[in-house]
Design goal:
about 500 residues, inorganic pyrophosphatase (n-terminal core), Diaminopimelate Epimerase, Chain A, domain 1, about 40% helix, globular
Amino acid sequence: MKWKQRNAEPLDPNLIQEYQLSPIAAKLFSLRGINTAEKLDFWFNSSEEDLADPSLMHDLDKAVERINQAIDRGEKITIYGDYDADGITSTAIMVETLSILGADIHYFIPNRFKEGYGPNLDNYKKIVADGTKLIITVDNGVTGVDEVAYAKTEGVDTIITDHHTFQEKVPDSYALVHCNYPGQTYPFDDYCGAGVAYTLCRKLMEDPLPELLDLVMIGTIGDMVKVSGEGHIIVKRGLEIFNHTDRPGLRALVKNAGLKLGNLDETDIGFNISPRLNATGRLDNASLAVELLLADDEFEAKELADKIEELNNKRREFTQEVYESCLNQVKINNWQRSNTLVLYDSNFHEGVLGLVANKIATTLHKPTLVLTKNDQGDVKGSGRSGKNFNLFNALNPLKNLFTKFGGHDFACGLSMTEDKIPELREKLESGFHVEQESAEEYDFELNLKDLSLDTLEQINQVGPFGTDNPKPVFSVSNFQIKNFIRMGQEKNHIRFNAVKEDGSL
């Protein structure tokens, strides 16, 4: 692995003094381009009051007008969500807000195994037949050309709120609210689905709605969108509100995760809270998680959280099983030297394909697709890649091989027939090219003599960390290793002291 040190001009000493920055924090801020009084002030002092005018987002005012019309007329509104943490929180945000406004509000989360991700014509037909007059999508919708067209012929309007990549055809919806719509003037372009839904709700309520930021923050971290710009406000303020949340569902979830409210950070959300919400959609129906977030009774919340905990434990087991099977496929087929991986087994559990693809891509440093076959005979899969390979762009020209396809730059989902797998494997491999030199970046050499618990406080001043504000990586060189021991049931973890001069880690 190649390592490259980040470089930047040092911060102005006057700024260091004004903001009382330690040498470590000052260096980290400079390396992230947060190097002016305006930027530092935003980092430390910005709040939801500083978010841009929602009306700048494409079609947002048009969407608000139609929603208010539906509420006034008593029309049935259905939120069409998604089964991951972002889709779950997006759904809860919209349902909670529209309930306050007195709407006749309902929600629908597709089943991963029966209906798959995103718009589905049969689902739209059921929703329309059930009397819905307005469909609002959250965290999906931009691929729903046929579904939106059908609803329109039945006199049902669709408002799409989404953040996923546009494809050739765009649905003819009543309104299309999207954080990255070409030519719009909204200044932040990397919200998750929950962020877009929250922006719409801010306008509906004419209020910054801080009470929703805990949910928006979970969606933001779960979907790995930017935590810079407005994303910084969402995650920073969302964590503050989360740590004092009165939501019975979140409190029960935190307790079952073995955590305590008060000082939870983005890592706790990313590794303990989001996976539990995701587990519902991976193994069951994600409506269970929406119910949890909307629960206002502690007993009900505990029952729901306990069910989710059981699902999360099963999710861990399935993930490990599929991961080990994938590694075995690579070994048996001598794919260690391949640039890309397409791994298939009809017995893989569909709910953990994305998790395993990410784990394989991270471990073996190769763009990876993991596929399985569902009960209907369709092959479904998830793909992940590193920052040096745009997986979406690589697969988009191969769309003729798929019955369904969508995603982001480095993550995707697809459906196809089994006979097309060899062609997909061959074309993905032959079309592989590194788009940029792959090198991991580190910040600077850490002096072990100065290391203390206070060092962590200094580092955390530059957080919360995530996409576009990477967690710091430090170099320690020319040290001695002492007290080296192997740990864990399989002795596959290690612990040691790194000792240099008068300091140790």
